[in-house]
Predict the 3D structure of the following.
Amino acid sequence: MTPSQLQALACEDCPADIRCTTLQGLNGPVLTVVITHEPTCPWLARVAPEGATLVRERGIVRHTARTTA
Ligand SMILES: [Zn+2]
């Protein structure tokens, strides 16, 4: 998947930031996609107010909210 395709998948409700990294797992590299939503994102508030980590066959998808530190 290309970065622009990933960006399109990130979120329909906010201009989410998306990052891909590869972590070393016990069975080899694991693709990890971190999607950082705006704190006001209605999708995140509805679906995963505490954030969520989804484990998929080919990697991990983590949804989180941008913190205003
Ligand atoms: Zn969002």
